[in-house]
Amino acid sequence: MTVITHIEDLRRLAQKRVPRMFYDYADSGSWTESTYRANESDFQKIKFRQRVAVNMENRSTATEMIGQKVAMPVALAPTGLTGMQHADGEIKAARAAKAFGVPFTLSTMSICSIEDVAEHAGKGFWFQLYVMKDRDFIERLIDRAKAAGCSALVLTLDLQILGQRHKDLKNGLSAPPKLTLANILNMATKPHWGLGMLGTKRHGFGNIIGHVKGVDNMGSLSEWTAKQFDPALNWGDVEWIKKRWGGKLILKGIQDTIDAKLSINSGADALIVSNHGGRQLDGAQSSIEALPTIVEAVGNDIEVHMDGGVRSGQDVLRAWALGAKGVYIGRPFLYGLGAMGEAGVTKALEIIHRELDLTMAFTGHTQLNHVTKDILLPGTFPTPM
Fold first, then answer.
1. List of residues 6+ apart from 142 with CB closer than 8 A
2. Helix extents (H) in 208-286
3. What residues make up the domain containing 315?
4. Per-residue pLDDT tens digits for 186-216
5. Whether residue 276 lies in the annotated active site
6. Could you say which of 166, 192, 211, 276 is catalytic?
7. Among candidate residues 356, 366, 357, the one with its CA nearest the CA of residue 332
8. Does the N terminus or the C terminus of the chain have fewer Cβ atoms within 10 A?
């Protein structure tokens, strides 16, 4: 039996257990994947300053994200098709996040519906919104998130049009997935995954199917979604959504200081420095490289979070030291989910928390809220441009 010690162990196990088309969907970037790779590699350049003979007792990684108490400054990121990594995946991930004391963010393009997940999620249940041309549907989706008790709305701004991901095209990933001979044969080698899928009724996009006129199966969904992502999305729409929602609003996909300042003007409560996990604009800055400039520009006026490339608790601490008040993990929890279901998500959170806690101690701190960029070795981390 494999002893799981870090996120890479979960990734390798997920790769063995999840059908190739769904594993590749989660573990890929656009075009050359240069930004996807940079998101990870740029973290590794940042070095810590080790301190010794400091009392390391009574440590705490607890803090707040948008006024909500969290066990550590980590949220589960919104990821589409989570329920295809493992049967009922969104429900299982939400349960693990609730038990651990961190937020779970449900994607618009989830398999389990808002209502399904709400039965299992805690107060840290957030909903991520993609803006579609069908504004009536968007209004009802926002209202459903309210009714489900979601405490924050995460509005994704960097997917007005879809970036090209070569692996998805080659694997025939679509809605519904193309059941080519190669895909069928590959799925046949994943019996545990297949049995799970046979045991659940949740196979479609639960937030959409049955909630849009004329969309009652995966076939009609494909035709609808191909036309629905809105390239005309603008800051006026953000203000309209803020007003309709009325609660905490987080804007995802900010990479530039101009957009960061517009985020403040829109009335948002937080922004996420993000390049969509390297899945949209290939050749964009890594998130950790972009973070310090945005923190310096707007960090006193809006809460700054980040995602992209986080693979360890050390990465969480690096991002925190550079000004991020919250960090989102997508692939790490998906690896855990694909590898071991709910227990795998819990394992991913445990690994990240332990790495965060120990690294904080080795840098001479016992309280996360006292940590600053002084824990980082000068000259090894990005500075504001």
1. 129, 153, 241, 244, 245
2. 218-228, 235-245, 257-265
3. 7-46+59-356
4. 999 999 999 999 999 999 999 998 898 878 7
5. yes
6. 276
7. 356
8. N
